[in-house]
Design a protein that fits this description.
The chain has one helix and 15 strands. The protein is mainly beta. The strands form four sheets. Strands 10-9-8-7-11 form a five-stranded antiparallel sheet, with no helix packed on it. Strand 1 and strand 2 form a beta hairpin. The radius of gyration is 30 Å and the shape is elongated.
Length: about 220
């Protein structure tokens, strides 16, 4: 769940401040990614006013917190060898072992992380990567390939063949016969919508022919 709402879409845009709830071993927990300009500080309850009891977390590290007791169950550093999930950008939804973390980047370049995913090694901006486990992921992650996403599959539904001659006569009739041979159907004559005297075209005059081939279960047919 994201912020208490069930989410099934593996491409759901999870923000850096969103709380991802993970159910594992009959215990509900939440994983939070530290972010912001400064480090995240943790203090014990018994000595909450003592600054020496504070522990700083670098940006990008992940905390696993029990709900509703808010007990810290685990702490995962954003470093090589951990299991990461890309939560933003063009690599969103990909996950795998973090191979390398590049923080020593000169401005304006941004720190990067290299992940070993099922599609090979990919490089993503470090702020777009969230640690979700040690050697293995602590949550059930779904990674679908482009071929499994119906919105990414290329399919030809119709092929339109158009021939614009610009004038009626023998040339237009020849073009109509060629389109009939290509598509297997009688082409449609298209007429001019307005008059352009400079090109010798007048409104209502046939100037083009058009035919199309549509897709059926057996393939493309006229």
């Amino acid at each position: 769940m994201v912020d208490g709402r069930p989410v099934k879409d593996y491409k759901f845009p999870v923000g850096l401040m969103d709380v991802v709830s993970i159910r594992r071993r009959a215990r509900t927990s939440e994983s939070c990614r530290s972010t912001g300009g400064a480090s995240t500080s943790l203090r014990s309850r018994r000595r909450s006013s003592d600054s020496s009891s504070a522990r700083s977390l670098p940006d990008g590290d992940t905390l696993k917190i029990a709900v509703p007791s808010q007990t810290i169950l685990g702490y995962l550093r954003l470093e090589g060898g951990k299991y990461g999930l890309s939560i933003k950008g063009p690599k969103q939804g990909l996950h795998g072992r973090i191979v390398e973390v590049r923080r020593d980047i000169i401005y304006p370049a941004k720190p990067l992380a290299k992940l070993s995913t099922s599609r090979g090694e990919v490089i993503s901006i470090l702020d777009y990567v969230m640690v979700v486990g040690g050697a293995l992921a602590e949550a059930a992650l779904i990674e679908r390939g482009k071929e499994e996403n119906p919105m990414r599959m290329l399919r030809i539904e119709k092929v339109v063949v158009n021939s614009c001659i610009g004038a009626a006569g023998v040339r237009l009739e020849k073009a109509a016969k060629i389109l009939e041979m290509l598509t297997g159907q009688k082409p449609e004559f298209r007429k001019a919508k307005k008059t352009i005297k400079g090109f010798g075209i007048y409104r209502g005059q046939p100037i083009a022919v058009r035919g199309h081939v549509e897709e059926t279960e057996g393939g493309l047919v006229p």
